[in-house]
């Protein structure tokens, strides 16, 4: 999968030390800035698969497609996949309604 990002010119560095990348970081293939397009040729390998050992139960609870995938893999293989450590997640936006949904409808 081609990975493309947009950044400001001042955010581009010539070299990213390997030690600063974590195993879940995804190296980019193309960097687009306001003044140029950079095709990255010498990059770290991309991670493959889901890193279940980094995915907390709380985060998994928020992402249905990953929950379903994990359940299917465990049922088909008969093996329980690892899970990441417990964590406290920041609050998420309420998607059931609110100010944004009334915009343009004359409500107030």
Please give a structural write-up:
By secondary structure, this protein is of the alpha+beta class. It has two domains: 4-39, no CATH class; 49-88, no CATH class. Helices cover 22% and strands 8% of the residues. The chain has three helices and three strands; from the N terminus they run βββααα. Strands 1-2-3 form a three-stranded mixed beta sheet, with no helix packed on it.
What is the compact description of this entry?
The chain is an alpha+beta fold. It has helices spanning 57-62, 64-77, 99-102, and strands spanning 4-6, 30-32, 37-39. The protein has two domains: 4-39, no CATH class; 49-88, no CATH class.
User: Can you list the strand order of the major beta sheet?
Assistant: 1-2-3
Helix content: 10-25%
SSE-based structural type: alpha+beta
Low-confidence segments, ≥5 residues, pLDDT <50? Answer: none
Specify the number of helices.
3
Q: Any chance you could write out the topology, listing elements then pairs?
A:
Blueprint: E1 4-6, E2 30-32, E3 37-39, H1 57-62, H2 64-77, H3 99-102
Parallel strand pairs: 1-2
Antiparallel strand pairs: 2-3
Features:
108 residues; 2 domains; extended
């Amino acid at each position: 999968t081609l990975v493309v990002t947009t950044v400001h010119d001042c955010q581009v560095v010539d070299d990213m030390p390997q030690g600063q990348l974590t195993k879940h970081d995804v190296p980019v293939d193309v960097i687009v800035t306001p003044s140029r397009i950079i095709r990255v040729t010498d990059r770290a390998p991309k991670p493959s698969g889901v890193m279940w050992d980094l995915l907390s139960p709380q985060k998994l609870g928020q992402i249905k497609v990953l929950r379903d995938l994990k359940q299917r893999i465990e049922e088909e293989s008969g093996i329980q996949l690892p899970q990441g450590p417990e964590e406290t997640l920041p609050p998420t936006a309420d998607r059931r309604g609110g100010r944004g949904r009334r915009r343009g409808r004359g409500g107030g």
